[in-house]
Each structure stands twice: as C-alpha cells, then as structure tokens.
Amino acid sequence: MIRKSYVIKHWQLYAMLILPLAYFIVFKYFPIYGVTIAFKDFNVFKGITASEWVGLDVFRDIFSQKSFYVALRNTFMLNGLDLLFGFPAPIILAICLNELRLKAFKKLSQTLLYLPHFISWVIIGGIVYQVFATNYGIVNLLLEKIGLGPFPFLSDKLYWLATYTSVGIWQSVGWGSIIYLAAITGINKELYEAAEVDGASRLRKIWHITLPGIRTTIIVLLILKIGDMVDIGFDRPYIIGNVMVREYSDVLSTYIYRIGLQSGQFSIATAVGLFQAVVGLVFILSANYISKKTTDEGII
Amino acid sequence: MKALKRVGSVAFAVMLCIALLVGCSSNSSTGTGSNTAGSAAKNEKNDSGSKERVTLKVEVFDRGNSPEGMTVTNNLMTKYVQENFGDPNNIDVEFVAVPRSEEINNLNVLMAAGTAPDIIFTYNEGAVYSWAQQGGLMDLGPAIEEHGPQLKEYLADSLQYGIFDGMQYAVVARRVNLQKYSSLIRKDWLDALSLPIPTTTEETYEALKAFKQNNMGGERTIPFGFALAPDSYEPVIWSFIKEQSDEARYLRSVTIGSREYPILMDGHKDALQFLNKLYNEGLLDPDFALDKDKKKKDEHFVNGYTGLYSFDSGQAFGNGESSAVMTLESNVSGAEVAPVLPWTDFEGKNRQPAYNPSGMYIMVPSFSKRTAEAIKYLNWMAQDEVIQYMAFGEEGVHHNLVDGYPVRNSSEEDQKLLYNTGDMLIITNGIDFGSAENNNEYMALSVVEKHRELAIQSRSFADKDAVQQPISFDKPLDSEAKYSVVMLEKYEELLVKSIMSKPEEFDKVYEVTLKDFMDTAGTEVFEERKVAYEAMQQ
C-alpha cells in the first residue's frame, strides 16, 4: 500500500523514465530479433523471416576460418595491451594532477590533456602517419639527428603495437582521468591532515589514502573494461593499421566490417557479433564474481 | 485537478506505447514486404501509360565537390533532367546521394533495407554478381526491348557484359578510352646522366639505379614512384608474365573487382622478386605500403623527388593548367618529362593491361516498381543532344568549339553545370568522337598546349600490346563474389610482404603469403574457375 502511494506521489519521475525505457526497447531490445540472422542463410532480398534456417552452419563456417582466429587473437592482444598500459595511465595521471599545487597550471594541463579525446580518429590517423613515417616523419628525423636509425613505427609488427598502444593512451588518458579526479575529491580531507600530523610523506599519503580512497572506482572501471575485452572499437585499429601489420591490426570489428558490410555476408557478420556479445557477457560476469569474492565489491 | 493530471499521464504513456508499437510493426513489415514488392513490380511493369505522377529515384555519387549552394541531388543538371525528362513524362526524378568512397557499403545496406533507388550503379562487379545471385536485380531484357531502342543502339556491344545466366541484370555503360596505365620519366635527369630514354626493363633498372646513386632529386630521391595501388604494380607484374593463352588466364589468374590478377601464372613470382630487388636497393618509397590512395606518390612526383612515375592514363596531363606535369614544372625549374614504356616482357613486347569496352553496371533492384521508367530515363539519356548537353553544356556558355570539338571552358558556369558530369551521364564513360584519332585529338585539346604532343604520345604508349582485362566467364562465380574483398586484402599482403622481405628470405615469404592467399580463398576460387572453364569448353 505504501509502495503504491509512493508511485502515485512521484508519478512525474516515472513518466520521465518512459523515454529512456523506450529508447532501450526500440534500439536495444527490439533489434535482438535480428540475431536470428546468424542462424539463417540470410538473403537480403527475402528478408529475415523468409530466409531459410541453417542451424549452426554459419558458426561452423566461422570457426573453420583462420582469419577469424587471427582477428580474435588480435582483439585480445590489443585489448590486453590497453588494459596493461592504458588502464593504469589515467589513474597515475589523476594522482599527479591532484598533487599539483598551482591551480592555474593544473587547470591548463587538464584541459590540454582532454583535448585529444575530441579529435576524430581519422584525423589522429593522419597525424600519426605524418609523425611516425619511416623516412620523413618528424620523430624519425629527430632520432636520426641524434644518431639512432629510423625505426619502422608503422610497418614493423612489434613497433606498431607500441605505436598503437601509446597513441591510444595519448588520446584517452586525459578524459579517463576525470572520473578518478572526481573520486579523489570525495576523499575526506581530514585523513590527509591526520597523516601529515603523523609525518607521512607525499608518497605515503598517496599509497595509504588516495589509492584506497578511489579503490571502488578503480574496481568498477576494471570490471567494465574486462567485460569489453572482446569488444573493440572500429576506428582505432582500422585507421592506425595498415597492410604491413594486418596480421596484428585485423580485429573482430574490422573483420565484421569487411565480411558484413563490404562483402555483404550478413549472416557471418551477425554470428561474429553474437559470439562477441556472449563472450563479453561471460567475461564481465566472471570478473564481477571474482571481484566480489576477493574484495566484496562488484557492479551487480 | 489531481485526478485530471493522472488521466493525462496515463493517456500520455498509452500514446507512447502505441507510437512504439506502430513504429515496430511498420519496421518489420518493410523487412518482409520486399518480396511482395518484387512480384508487384512485375505486374506493373507494362503499366507505363498511367497518368499518375510517379517518382523515379536515381543514385548519384557524392564526391563532396559540389559548388557552393548546390548538392549532388539538387543542382543545375538535376533541374535539366527534371525539366527535359521528368516533366514531359509525368515523372518526378529524385536523386539519391551515395558517398563515392562508401559506395558498396551504402548500397549493400540500401539493398538489404529495400530502400535502394530505382536506378543504382557501381563499377564493382563482385557486388553486382552477389546481388544477381540473391535475386536482388530485375531482368531488364524485356523492358529494354519495349522502352529502350535508342539505348540499345547506343550501347551496342557493351550490353552483353550485363548478361549473367542469360538474364540482362545490368545495363552496362560504354567505355570509350580503354587505356589503363601510362608512365613518365624525368627527361632532364636522363640528360644530365647522358642516358637514353629506357626501352627495356634492364635499361629502366639501370636508369633507376643511376637516379639513386646520383641523388637526382636530392636526399629524398625516389627513383620509382610506387604506391600500394594497381597503377603502380599492375604494369610491372604483367610485363613479367610468360603465359598468354586464354586457358592460362582462366585457370591461373583470378578476377578481383574488375582486375585480373595473374597470381599462379609463370612469371608472377619473378615480378615480385624484381620489385623486391628494387625495394631493397632503395629504389621504391620505403613507406609505399601506407600509400594506398596514391597521395604520397603524386606528392613526391610534383615535388620533383620521383624519377619514374606511373599513373592511371590521362591523370598526369589532365586538369589543364593545374595538371601534375604543370605543377612539377612550376615547382622544379628545368624539370622535363618524357613518356616511356619502361617494362618489356620475355618477348620484348610491352604487354600491359587495358580496360574492357564496358563502363559501370547500371541496375534496377528487384523490389523497384519503376523498371519501365528507369529504362525510359536511360533511353532518353542516349539521345545525341542529351549526351551533348550533359557532357558539354551549351556552346559559348559552358564550352567553346575548338577545331570542331567542344572543349569545356572551365568558367564558373561550366563548373556549376558539369562538375559531376561523369556521375550524371552514366551510360558512357568518356565521349566518343567516332574514331580513336578523333578521341586523341579531343583529349589533346584539354591539355595545355605545350604538353599536347607528350599527352598524345603517352596515350598511344598505353595502347601498345595492351590486353583487355579481365577475361570473363559466361556466368558469375560464387566464390569470386564472396571473397572479392578478402582476396584483395590477402593479395596486398602477398605483395607487401614479399616486396619488403630481405632478398634471402624472399622465397620463403612469397611461399608463406601465397599459401595464406590460397588457403583463405584462392583454392576455392581456382577450383570454381576450373569447373566453369571446363563447362564452357563443352
């Protein structure tokens, strides 16, 4: 009874919920119907319903393709590198920014660090080619001046991995640090004062107060990140990648693009997408489970 | 008051739900409705005398180059079409923009959604095949018989390229100029080194080496301007091929897109080994593999770093005052170029690829109800005066008569009307003036005067020993359509990796990457080619 009157009392709030709900139903839940394409010999001119069912044939086809495994491996590899180097980067940056005394300098560097986030990958790709080209790129010209030979930043597979990872960090580190900075502001100032009285150094304070203070945030973001392990953005590998490093730069998203949109094999593309979603779900659930067991914190 | 509010909110929620349901159901009905639309189209096909005003949707490429205030879907030319074709026939012609670079992706989505325009076109054979196979294209044979006499006469032989499995699935445009690739060499460099213009592969190689040793273009000298693009690798590769029979072309080369790749032919490996040698001796741009759009290659040429430069025929001299050669001459004082046939084959001939006399594929999707109107439109376009206007506009306004040929005058008016003439006048690629000589003369008129001789020579070089490609089967091959994108990627990998490998590792790298190509798609494609070839022999 209390519940009912609560709903009636705050009906405006519920009404406001209708639009977001509608969004999810129309754009997220309704299209799930299209997943059936993965189990059909989809003929675009017959439509989804009229196309014939083929059971798991499409999946058999995918799992027999070498290029699929390459794309899958690369997806894990590139995401793994991002997790290893790209995940801690914003945390470190946020802590550094937090330690800055000069307000104006802090604001300025924060703004400058956010900027790359707003640049489209297409433009970043152009810049990367100009900067890292083997013969005429500024980086190699400078390196040559100090006697270090030109490095194949874009054309050698291993160098390319480094380029890919660092460009990614450069692009996202500033933006990623915002959420940690916000978490840091939430830490009780008295803790720092008490530590100071006890004679704790800066590093000690970071280690014992700041880091534990943002632990929850870190864990939540980590779980989400792990859930995204099979999910990889399209722009970055597609634009930064090139023929010479395709062995490493071809990931599931570019694979789907090529097979689905460019070759028009929608069944295969859908099946790979479904596979991605299922593995992603498994990952996020297990990360959450482990985190709950070990630290008592999770997202579900 | 409160009660009223409550009623209002409930009503609002209900309305929203209804709106959603309607949205969903109309969505799903378009998905499944394409079938019925397809059969309905067949019934309506002969219903051309209807008085009702109908809309004909026509694809047009958007290259993002419209003059200010205009779009590809609304400009002076679209108005001309509406006034001269649309209004008299009681048809609203509506143009649908498709971004040039995203053409296939866009068309695939439009076809899948059943919302593609009534007239679609593409150069991509693979896509045409796969739509035809899935039953997505209308058989245009009957409609052409009924509504397209002029079109039939105009296209003549090229129509046959649109017949698959006995059905006229596409109207294939004419292609007037069949020359594919041309090369230029820096004459001033050769003169400075007192070398003749090379006429064989060996001489070319010696010249390239001399360019490098003497740093003719400064520290950045790139003896051979090379990109990861067909205009760079095709001429070299075909000059190494030792097999010429049709049988070899059917059984040991594959068609990817509209090009023939002689992957398994005798000589293919030698070609790549030769390129590998050039690369390792520093005669190619070390970053050539990043240069898929040829921008760097062109940039290096106009800046005077490049010694030998090959390009799509016509490109280097086109654009009048702002042609690549003009730009080079203004950037580098004393620069001089000469047309050259740099590569010779085992017989000493200059075997090189040429186009088939067919242009783009123009099609009507099977769900379209406007087949008759579509053919009427193309038939209207095939009239001399329409071709004349759509290609050259009016005399004195958009073009001037020079030696009896209409030459566009590059005025503002000209740019406004004719900036995308090639994408509007879809039934022909290039304008035919009756003979090869006339066409050459006309081409020369669009080149700045001092380069005319060179341009004509360059074009005649591109004709020498040229072989029209690709060789085609009488029906589309499933595997080629399915793997066209994958094959091109794997082939590029084969090229890049074997060219860039160390000389002593070449054999191994070539073998591994070729095997990768074969495993991913090649074996299946070659098997199907073999079966199709044998069937054709009977």
UniProtKB/TrEMBL annotation, chain A:
It is found in: Cell membrane; Membrane. The keyword Secreted does not apply. This is Protein LplB. One of its GO terms (cellular component) is plasma membrane. It comes from Paenibacillus montaniterrae. The gene is lplB_7. Residues 72-287 form the ABC transmembrane type-1 domain. The chain crosses the membrane at residues 12-30, 76-97, 118-138, 158-185, 206-227, 266-290. PANTHER family: POLYGALACTURONAN_RHAMNOGALACTURONAN TRANSPORT SYSTEM PERMEASE PROTEIN YTEP, PROTEIN LPLB. InterPro entries: MetI-like, MetI-like_sf. Its main location: membrane. GO terms for biological process: transmembrane transport. Keywords: Membrane, Transmembrane, Transmembrane helix, Transport.
TrEMBL record, chain B:
The keyword Heme does not apply. The keyword Signal applies. PROSITE patterns: PROKAR_LIPOPROTEIN. Residues 1-28 form the signal peptide. Gene3D superfamilies: Periplasmic binding protein-like II (3.40.190.10). Residues 28-52 are annotated as: Disordered. Keywords: Signal. PANTHER family: ARABINOSE-BINDING PROTEIN-RELATED. Residues 42-52 have a biased composition (Basic and acidic residues). It comes from Paenibacillus montaniterrae. It holds the Pfam family SBP_bac_8. This is ABC transporter substrate-binding protein. Coiled coil: none annotated.
